[in-house]
Amino acid sequence: MPEPDVTTLTHRLAAITRRAMGERMATESWAHEAGFRPGCIGVLRVVAAREPVSQREVSEALLLDPSDLVTLVDILEAAGLVERRRDPADRRRYALEVTPRGQLAVVRLREISQETNEELLAPLDQTERAQLAELIGRVVRHHTGEPEPSTAGLSPADPPAGQPDEDGVSELPALPGHPERVRPYDPNREAERTRERAAESLRR
Q1: Torsion of CA 125, 128, 133, 135, to 10 degrees
Q2: pLDDT one-digit tens code per residue, 110-158
Q3: For the stretch 36-65, what's the b/e string if a residue is b when 16 or more beta carbons lie within 10 angstroms of its beta carbon?
Q4: Which of 3.40.50.10190, 3.20.20.300, 1.10.10.10, 2.60.40.10 is the CATH number of 23-141+162-203?
Q5: Mind listing the pLDDT tens digit for each residue in 4-55?
Q6: pTM (predicted TM-score)
């Protein structure tokens, strides 16, 4: 039996993912006004997860050329979603941080990503989805040298971030400055209201 053509499969899946994400982002007027490019999403999410973080660290995390990253950060900074600050530990470099407006954008992007995940992974059950994520993560960590994800401190009763709780709702950790946990995509409760509030805030 021949080995599966993983290269072609992953390339096709990436294309399907970009198309599904692009279709949803096409309706986000705030992203259009900001001049969003596809790479902006990853940059904003990495900065939100690691802030304050240097441009070099973001570049390495996303495997982006430093010059390409500068362009994406310029877009995000002009839109008021991130800001560059002098790193107190090294005045020669800048540290990136997410603004309050950027935090709203992160919540909205997480919601869009969750919707996209639901569409893409529709053929798989929860166990298969977890297996797929684990295998892809293992391959990525092998090539990037990233550490294994830590589950330390999680109670057996607390599902990992992004996994459904007992009500079947996926929760994400609180964002900086937002002590409450965020429910980014909930088909049974207030998802539409959440989208409307985030979109309205970003339009202001």
Answers
A1: -170
A2: 999 999 999 999 999 999 999 999 998 898 888 877 777 765 444 444 4
A3: beebbbbbbbbbbeebbbbbeebbbbbebe
A4: 1.10.10.10
A5: 788 898 889 989 999 999 999 988 888 888 888 878 999 999 999 998 899 9
A6: 0.65
